[in-house]
Design brief:
The protein is α/β, with parallel strands linked by helices. 28% of the residues lie in helices and 21% in strands. The strands form four sheets. The protein has an eight-stranded parallel beta sheet with strand order 9-8-7-6-5-2-1-10. A six-stranded antiparallel beta sheet has the order 11-12-13-18-15-16, covered by helices on one side. The longest helix has 15 residues. The structure holds alpha-D-galactopyranose.
Length: 387
């Protein structure tokens, strides 16, 4: 057995007997919440995070099922002489425990960020070599969720690094959701089922349709294309993560955000809002708070939707639901509106079914009656079909 295979074997064995058994049922459905990165980057502080917790309650996110408030990079500045992480006392003067307590007082859960590398992506101290002490610190603060990044990791084995933190969390004395942010480099979906609860499948999302940044960031349609074939790796307790939402961040049109959100629901993606939820337009609220769309994401069978038809500009995706219903997305990638044939059979529909439109919030016909489907440019029709 080669060294890498041996490490993989030991890591998977240890993970299987520790983490998975100690944290059953933490995320039976994909986690829902908010993360500071997409909108605020490093411009974060405790007042901002507390205002987000208030907004969760006031603006209906909590009622719609959103639960986790996650601070991303930039809350940490150094390590003390004992190796304990030091919080940025200028922006978080009351400390992280007080912030976690505030978020818990609203009936919400609290998440934090670190990195499996030596330093985080914003050059703050990473957790490599400090897994045990960091996990214990998080547990003492009341952390419920850890996003764990992959910057400054050259020469580090991903299986070992993520398994080390997974075990440290399992030994921390507190159930903590482990969100692996390794960007899909080592195909974590093939090895991380018993290491983490969710794993990023790609590089960073950007607030655009299919743009590609030189440094690796990309639009949501580019990310969507990279999810094909990954559906078999996800299920209750272990989810593919195509990255956080960009809905409401201002660089796309309403129907493009509707399409982005519809797909993230169908893919069983973690729904982590990435906008300023204190000030949301009606359009953004209507998208993020669509309980019928969220119900597709939170269906207890946990079957990730998949692409069932591809004709270039026109795609059909479908997802079987626990009660026998089927969720279907008809997707028009072109900028022009078209009438497409409603190929119900491709989506697994053999008998006549009722068609409920998830964005119009009403029944619009039956599969027998609907032979074509009109889809605007860069848009979707998102349906729930039932007998
Ligand atoms: C990486 C991650 C992002 C974000 C930043 C923070 O790029 O993939 O989601 O956490 O780091 O620095």
């Amino acid at each position: 057995m080669k060294m890498r295979e041996l490490i993989l074997f030991v890591a998977l064995f240890t993970a299987f007997t520790s983490f998975a058994q100690k944290t059953p049922g933490l995320v039976p459905t994909p986690p829902l919440g908010w993360n500071s990165w997409n909108k605020f980057g490093c411009n974060i502080n405790e007042d901002l995070i507390k205002e987000m917790a208030d907004a969760f309650v006031q603006n209906g996110l909590k009622d719609a099922g959103y639960e986790y408030i996650v601070i991303d990079d930039c809350w940490q500045v150094a390590r003390d002489s004992k190796g304990k992480i030091v919080v940025d006392s200028v922006h978080f003067p009351s400390g992280i425990k007080a912030l976690a307590d505030y978020i818990h007082s609203k009936g919400l859960k609290f998440g934090i960020y670190s990195c499996a590398g030596i330093r985080t992506c914003q050059e703050r101290p990473g957790s490599n070599g400090y897994e045990e002490i960091d996990a214990k610190t998080y547990a003492a603060w009341g952390v419920d969720y850890l996003k764990y990044d992959w910057c400054n990791s050259s020469g580090i084995d991903p299986v070992k690094a993520y398994t080390d933190m997974s075990n440290a969390l399992a030994n921390s004395g507190r159930p903590i959701v482990f969100s692996m942010c390794e960007w899909g480099n080592s195909r974590p979906f093939t090895w991380a089922q018993n290491v983490g609860h969710l794993w990023r499948t790609t590089g960073d999302i950007q607030d655009c349709w299919d743009c590609k940044r030189e440094w690796g960031g990309m639009g949501w349609v580019t990310i969507l294309d990279m999810q094909v074939g990954l559906e078999k790796y996800a299920g209750p307790g272990h989810w593919n993560d195509p990255d956080m939402l960009e809905v409401g961040n201002g660089h796309m049109k309403h129907h493009e955000y509707v399409a982005h959100f519809s797909f993230w629901c169908l893919l069983n993606a973690p729904l982590m809002a990435g906008n300023d939820i204190r000030n949301m337009s009606d359009s953004t609220q209507n998208i993020l708070l669509n309980k019928e769309a969220i119900a597709i994401n939170q269906d207890k069978a946990g079957i990730q939707g998949s692409k069932v038809y591809d004709d270039g500009d026109y795609e059909i995706w479908s997802k079987p639901l626990s009660n026998g219903d089927i969720a279907v997305i008809f997707f028009n990638r072109n900028e022009q509106q078209y009438d497409f044939p409603a190929l119900w059979k491709k989506a697994g529909i053999k008998k006549n079914m009722k068609v409920y439109d998830i964005w119009q919030h009403k029944e619009v016909g039956t599969t027998k009656e609907m032979q074509t489907v009109t889809i605007g440019g860069h848009a979707v029709q998102f349906y729930r079909l039932s007998k």
